[in-house]
Amino acid sequence: MNAFNERLKGKRAVVTGGAQGIGAATARRLAAEGAIVAVLDLNAEAAKALLPTPHIGLHCNIADSQSVENAFAEVEAALGGIDILVNNAGIGSAAGDGMDRYYAGMAEREALIAAGQAPTVFADQTIHCTDAGWATVIGVTLDGAFRCSRAAVRLMAAHGKGGAIVNVASTAAIQGNGPVPYCTAKAGIMGMTRAMAVELAARGIRVNAVHPGATDTPLFDGIPEGPKQAIADNSLLKRLGHPEEVASAIAFLASEDASYATGSIVTVNGGAFFC
Asked: Is 103 one of the annotated active-site residues of the chain?
């Protein structure tokens, strides 16, 4: 028996980056609430395997405009339109963004402090971040969310039934406690959320975002254990979040229970800070 209500019954949803982490948890939650879900991911096989028919899984590289257009055309052909878009796909780091040098500098600095020495080493990312590293993170995380929003809005506008867009931002955009390109991209998503909310209200399209705090997803796999534990301990609940906890907030914003919410950003961060 379905443990959730069917408040999304009849809705057609697209979840980007839906094969793992918050995206997979969200796709499962929306499906459990009655939506027909299109799971978009670079890993087409994992996307297809996540949910049974009538749900679908498709390959989509959100860093490439043509790939996005192709994927949304397939969604329209299969589902007949889109009611909900969840912009979840993104990356936290990329080759050449300087984070390897940052973590190395952090470890060396902490070792000097632990030895009772004045630290002479700095944890630097900015001075080591290449144009390519910067562009890759921004191109996927921010530009990709825009490309998918554009494709979804075109379909929503064509069908004239309104819709809901939920963007996955990050508390890193407020705190600045993450890679510089990533924090910048997520801050851009906040601005995009509010600008699109203003623009699209007349069409009946609501645009909101969630601010996950530190969540136990593959994004955290590349972070050394020491910094990861420090991040977890920074929350009032003294742990990382679970993807399902973020998915619950996303499902609320996508549903008619949030019919008066647009331009809102819901924080799910274990009380790491209040905003």
From this structure: no
